[in-house]
């Protein structure tokens, strides 16, 4: 790949750059074994090995591998044993999958405005709140609410991030969920994990994710005497094997992000109309986040970067109060479930109708970092970024 290509539009983000046939020992093992279903063998499955490795790396008591992060969110919510129609408070700025996970679990999302860092504003939560999903957006470690029994951390973009006390994101709340979608820290194309320190919750999730029963490896299918209905969220050995390979490179990837972020913070232009949003020590620095003085300047920066082949994105697409899933309250059920269980009034918590948040997003621009590049190439990449920003 040419230097210009590496420094410009990123075709393979983050973990995808570390995929390597010579490093696919677990995938080769699964194929040579001829078993791609995790419960088909009495020996330890690759999926179980992955779960054990993740637990050790993150300091999590229990880990379950599933198809994707949306399923992980559903499992976390279902394990709280809710009543249909119960409320779940979620960030007003996040991917629509969070709202979708709530609704497909028979629950009702309540949109909560965000603070300047675009994290859920915990001061808006009413007394007696029972369930909250907090999203660590763009690798930024978000504060968790206190005195809420079920706090689910959405860590889809924050694998490897840590709180100030050293705990990994995903392990400080009731449960944490992770994504291996293509454009995440590590990738297997699709894939997810759910972690929890609650043994009963893990047992419930493990049963629900495989048709309501806890499976015995090598003796599939077996049924619990107290089996309840469930769904099939069981990961495959092939996907788990790729994820295992990816985990080998997590520390290397995080170090590469830290290095380029440090280079950028020393070299970016000093403009009175531009601010680089700060990053805490424990954040996963997947991107540089810029906040311009106006939307016009932000849009001009998008044009400047795009014209030079430098990858960038805005965050307006994450404004859930404007998403048709929320505004339309549509359902595939004849009776409108679960929206039929929701109050008639808007379920949104904001001091100003999200006006401040829309303004923040209108002026925000993100540029991805490139952990796979050498330090010298990262310096050249930052130089090209600086030139694009100075041209605005």
Automatic annotation (TrEMBL):
What is the name attached to this protein's record? 8-amino-3,8-dideoxy-alpha-D-manno-octulosonate transaminase
GO terms (BP aspect):
polysaccharide biosynthetic process
Write down the InterPro entries for this protein, in alphabetical order. Answer: DegT/StrS_aminotransferase, PyrdxlP-dep_Trfase, PyrdxlP-dep_Trfase_major, PyrdxlP-dep_Trfase_small
Residues in the active site? 184 (proton acceptor)
- Which prosthetic group or cofactor does it need? pyridoxal 5'-phosphate
Which residues are reported to carry the modification N6-(pyridoxal phosphate)lysine? 184
Q: What family classification does the UniProt entry report for this protein?
A: Belongs to the DegT/DnrJ/EryC1 family. L-glutamine:2-deoxy-scyllo-inosose/scyllo-inosose aminotransferase subfamily.
Source taxonomy: Bacteria, Bacillati, Actinomycetota, Actinomycetes, Kitasatosporales
For this UniProt record, give its keywords in alphabetical order, as a comma-separated list: Aminotransferase, Pyridoxal phosphate, Transferase
Q: Which GO terms describe its molecular function?
A: pyridoxal phosphate binding; transaminase activity
Q: Which organism is it from?
A: Streptomyces netropsis
This entry's Enzyme Commission designation comes to 2.6.1.109
| Signal peptide start and end residues | none
């Amino acid at each position: 790949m040419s230097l210009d290509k590496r420094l410009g539009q990123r075709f393979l983000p983050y973990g995808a750059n570390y995929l390597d046939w010579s490093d696919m020992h677990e995938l080769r093992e699964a194929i040579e074994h001829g078993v791609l279903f995790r419960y088909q063998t009495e020996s330890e499955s690759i999926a179980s090995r992955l779960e054990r490795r993740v637990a050790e790396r993150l300091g999590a008591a229990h880990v379950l591998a599933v198809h994707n992060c949306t399923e992980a969110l559903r499992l976390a919510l279902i394990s709280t044993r809710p009543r249909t129609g119960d409320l779940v408070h979620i960030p007003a700025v996040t991917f629509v999958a969070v709202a979708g996970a709530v609704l497909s679990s028979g629950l009702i999302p309540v949109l909560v405005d965000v603070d300047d860092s675009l994290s859920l504003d915990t001061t808006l939560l009413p007394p007696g709140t029972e369930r909250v999903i907090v999203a660590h957006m763009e690798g930024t470690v978000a504060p968790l609410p206190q005195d809420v029994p079920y706090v689910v951390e959405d860590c889809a973009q924050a694998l490897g991030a840590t709180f100030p006390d050293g705990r990994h994101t995903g392990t400080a709340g009731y449960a944490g969920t992770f994504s291996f979608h293509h454009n995440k820290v590590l990738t297997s194309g699709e894939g997810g994990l759910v972690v929890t320190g609650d043994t009963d919750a893990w047992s419930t999730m493990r049963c629900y994710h495989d048709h309501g029963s806890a499976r015995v490896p090598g003796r599939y299918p077996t049924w619990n005497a107290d089996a309840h209905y469930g769904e099939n969220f069981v990961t495959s050995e092939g996907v788990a094997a790729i994820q295992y390979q990816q985990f080998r490179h997590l520390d290397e990837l995080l170090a590469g992000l830290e290095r380029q972020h440090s280079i950028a913070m020393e070299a970016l232009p000093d403009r009175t109309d531009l601010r680089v949003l700060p990053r805490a020590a424990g954040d996963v620095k997947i991107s540089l986040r810029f906040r311009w003085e106006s939307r016009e300047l932000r849009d001009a920066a998008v044009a400047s970067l795009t014209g030079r082949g430098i990858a960038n994105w805005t965050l307006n697409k994450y404004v859930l109060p404007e998403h048709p899933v929320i505004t339309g309250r549509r359902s595939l059920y004849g009776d409108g479930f679960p929206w039929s269980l929701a109050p008639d009034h808007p379920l949104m918590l904001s001091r100003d109708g999200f006006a401040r948040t829309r303004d923040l997003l209108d002026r925000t621009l993100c540029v991805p970092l490139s952990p796979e590049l050498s330090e010298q190439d990262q310096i050249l990449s930052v130089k090209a970024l600086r030139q694009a920003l100075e041209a605005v």
